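Design a sequence for this backbone.
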């Protein structure tokens, strides 16, 4: 493993130890603490799968599963934030960033010469699973590794079917795109006091979200719909070709620019590219919405008697 990979593995081991004695693990509503994504792949099969490496910011998906009231959930969320704060005090060489898409800008600032580790971390409430899109449950269950557990593996017991691109899915996409747009408008206005490099970081995050969603929105829905969501997991591998085929050359050129940044993040990180990414976000979002979302809406027959307002701006 590289120095960075070793640092992250040691940090995660220490996090699990701290979590095991933390106030969250003692809550009656606590069920399990998991990691998902490529890092889970590696932990499940360390001798057969390469340890994840990152060209940009290293990132890990960490979720705490509870079954609770919303009052208990919000208490757990506050405690989780304090736990990460204590980890930064104990591991001064590791600077944590918290990715809060799709409804908020992220927390934390990149610090040069530190290991900047980006976390996508949430408290997931299993008391009412219908509050989360089925494609989220499908993604979490299809690829996770238990870090700490109290009792049985509740996620393993959960019945999750392959998600469908139906009316509910499309409404979730509509909500996501509206949220993305509002956050990025706020990011641009934050130039009043926020460093342009932080604006670059946030604009890049949301460009990636639109780029990823454009895959499931770009593929036509057939009458015998059986969409393979594993395509989305591998969106980075052929994303530029995908956009060239399903959208067009201009959209592909924007995606190619985003992918180039992914490969050499800190070389591009500048005020010039911050402004470019803000513009790229809306150009790409509008293309995906008009050519992808609207096309899928016309294919879903249930929407003939339904209506979705244009993407709302509530800022």
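Sequence:
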């Amino acid at each position: 493993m590289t120095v960075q990979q070793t640092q992250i593995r040691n940090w995660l081991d220490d996090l699990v130890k701290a979590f095991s004695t933390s106030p969250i693990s003692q809550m009656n509503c606590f069920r399990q603490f998991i990691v998902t994504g490529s890092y889970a792949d590696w932990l499940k099969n360390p001798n057969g799968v390469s340890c994840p490496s990152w060209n940009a910011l290293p990132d890990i998906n960490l979720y705490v599963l509870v079954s609770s009231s919303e009052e208990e959930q919000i208490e757990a969320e506050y405690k989780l934030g304090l736990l990460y704060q204590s980890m930064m005090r104990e591991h001064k060489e590791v600077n944590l960033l918290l990715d809060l898409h799709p409804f908020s800008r992220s927390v934390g600032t990149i610090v040069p010469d530190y290991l900047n580790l980006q976390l996508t971390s949430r408290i997931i409430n299993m008391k009412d699973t219908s509050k989360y899109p089925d494609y989220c449950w499908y993604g979490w269950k299809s690829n996770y590794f238990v870090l700490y557990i109290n009792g049985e593996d509740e996620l393993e017991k959960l019945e999750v079917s392959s998600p469908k691109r139906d009316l509910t899915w499309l409404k979730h996409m509509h909500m996501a795109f509206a949220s993305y747009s509002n956050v990025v408008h706020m990011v641009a206005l934050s130039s009043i006091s926020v460093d342009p490099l932080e604006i670059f970081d946030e604009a890049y995050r949301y460009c990636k979200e639109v780029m990823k969603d454009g895959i499931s929105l770009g593929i036509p829905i057939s009458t015998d719909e059986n969409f393979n969501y594993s395509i989305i997991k591998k969106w980075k591998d052929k994303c530029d070709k995908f956009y060239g085929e399903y959208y067009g050359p201009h959209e592909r050129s924007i995606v190619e620019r985003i992918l180039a940044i992914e490969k050499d993040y800190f070389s591009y990180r500048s005020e010039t590219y911050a402004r470019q990414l803000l513009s790229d976000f809306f150009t790409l979002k509008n293309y995906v919405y008009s050519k992808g979302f609207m096309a899928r809406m016309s294919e879903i027959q249930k929407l003939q008697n339904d209506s979705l307002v244009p993407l709302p701006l509530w800022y």
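Residues 167-305 form one domain.
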